[in-house]
Amino acid sequence: MTTLFCPRCGKDTDIFYDNLCRQCFIGDKKLIECSPVLQARICPTCGSVFSKGKWMKKEDESEAIVECVEAAIKLDKSARNIELTFSPKQLDYSRYSVHIEAKAEIKGVPITAYRDTEVRINWETCDTCSRISGGYFEGIVQIRAVKRLPTKDELERCRSIANDVAASAQEKGDRLAFIAKTEELYEGVDLYVGSIKLGKQICRAVIDVFGGKFSESPKLVGQKNGEDLYRITFALRLPEFVRGDIISADGKVIEVQSCGKHVSGIDLETGKRFIENFNDLLEVKKLSRRQDAVTALLIADEGKTTQVMDPDTYETVTIKRPEFLSVEPGNEIRIVKTAKGIYVLPQ
Fold first, then answer.
1. CA–CA distances in Å: residue 129 to residues 84, 161, 182, 343
2. What residue ranges do the domains of the chain occupy?
3. How far, in Å, CA of 301 to CA of 320, rounded?
4. Is beta strand 80-92 parallel, antiparallel or unpaired with respect to 284-289?
5. Digit-coded pLDDT (tens) for 198-248
6. Following DSSP, what letter does each residue of 158-190 receive, concatenated?
7. Does the pLDDT of residue 50 top 70, yes or no?
8. CATH 2.60.40, applies to 31-127
9. 36: phi > 0 → left, psi -120 to 50 → alpha, else beta; which?
């Protein structure tokens, strides 16, 4: 009977891997290689890490350390089914030790390897934080309203939308997607943005919610590499009407419930629901506000019409009965007096 043995160690074996026994085959392999000391560039302000020639946002410092190690290690090219486990441990303000465990298969043979490395952090301000601290901006988004002052709630919502848009753009890798400064003014708010692209994105996102429009005004601020540099002022205008406004919309008298790309509300003459694309309305005019409503006496309900007493002249006025009216005659209701007549308001 022929006895087979490993030509390297002489051990009897009946299975060979590249003409070696399993132990010698494994001993020949360097499953993982890693320098005992690695360097990482991390921004002390935002935690971004410099990797592959650019700064990338990281929420967790230990995550940045692990990615630094991942980028530096080398694995055997023939390894399959690789599993890597990293165990970082902070040594001090600028040093981490990382224990690496690697499991894989090479030609069907399970192999496990361990390595330890130390990551030394070079604290360096990233490009974005450097720009922010230097007051850098490429555009100003000026949020105002047409023929009125924006409400506090509107401005808070606009700022929230702007912050969400900037955060989303940063997650997608746009390093200039930041709001450098916010100025609160009597007539609205100004947002100083890190890029022209972000300014446009904020304007479009706000208009999707509130409606309105924006325009751009470029200003030449210098040159770089022979090319003109501009700052853009985005004049963002919120719609003229808000919830509670009484408007005339193509002949119908509407109490506005919301006004964005669409105007929605209640037709005060019929009581029916009203919704139209704002840009499709040919004639829109503000008549009054819910805050200007007064109390009046409901005298009679005649089905299709109703009679109310004008609280100023004490005259009886006959108007169409809206669907929402459920008050019995002899009780008080809220009405609004406009240039188009008297209208009952829903409770």
1. 33, 22, 16, 57
2. 31-127, 135-238, 245-344
3. 10
4. unpaired
5. 999 999 999 888 878 899 998 876 666 667 677 899 999 998 888 889 998
6. HHHHHHHHHHHHHHTT-TT--EEEEEEETTEEE
7. yes
8. yes
9. alpha
